Amino acid sequence: MAGNREFLNRRLHSLFGVVPVGIFLIVHLVVNHFATGGEESFNKAVGFMESLPFLIFLEFILIYLPLLFHAIYGLYIAFTAKNNTSKLGYFRNWMFLLQRVSGVIVLIFLAWHVYSTRIQMAFGEEMNYSFMENVFSNPWMIGFYIVGLIATTFHFSNGLWSFCVSWGITQSPRSQQIASYVVLVVFVVLSVIGVRAIFAFV
């Protein structure tokens, strides 16, 4: 019974990391990338997202609750997993370890990001180009966001590979090798989109 529950939890953890959290990550990065088009472009994109009907409800049901489950169970996995990189330094073992490390970094980054944006908005701050420009006026904050961004895009991309394996999408060694190249492209593309958005505010 306990084994079945753990199997289900791991499946849900993997699923929530891709759908809907991973999809939200992509949408969020694309919206932020509108900053490369200037202040008006970014403000219009944010305004469109903020004008979606039932936004608070959608955020809690489709983002915050799945993310909370993914984060809590991810911490359980991170601190109970038996990494064997010292004995078997294979590529996938290192990816397994880095997935857990990046997950902790992402959790810290997200906690700050949510506090400095969504919670501040709840207290009356307006989310616009000027707000983000002020955030990135601090060089330390630029570095913090870049580290958080890279950790997030890596965690998602590497998790996408694990998702394909655990859900039986890539079963053969050949398909898993191809998936490794695909998720590498995903990681690079999302990272470039995110970094360009950050520097658009600088």
Write the layout of secondary structure elements.
Blueprint: H1 2-18, H2 21-33, H3 39-50, H4 55-80, H5 91-122, H6 129-135, H7 139-166, H8 173-200
Helix pairs in contact: 1-4, 1-7, 2-8, 4-5, 5-7, 7-8
Account of the protein in words:
By secondary structure, the chain is mainly α. It has one domain (2-200): 3 helical TM bundles of succinate and fumarate reductases. Helix content is 81%, strand content 0%. The chain has eight helices and no strands. It has helices spanning 2-18, 21-33, 39-50, 55-80, 91-122, 129-135, 139-166, 173-200. α1 (2-18) crosses α4, α2 packs parallel to α8 and α5 packs across α7 (139-166). The radius of gyration is 18 Å and the shape is globular. The termini are far apart. The model has no long low-confidence stretch (mean pLDDT 91).
How would you concisely characterize the structure shown here?
81% of the residues lie in helices and 0% in strands. It has 202 residues and is mostly helical.
Helix content: over 70%
Shape: globular
| Number of helical regions | 8
At CATH level 2, the architecture is Up-down Bundle
Instruction: Characterize the largest beta sheet: strand count, sense, and whether it forms a barrel.
Output: none
What is the β-strand count?
A: 0
CATH superfamily: Fumarate reductase/succinate dehydrogenase, transmembrane subunit
Strand coverage percent: under 5%
Question: Structural class of the secondary elements?
Answer: mainly alpha
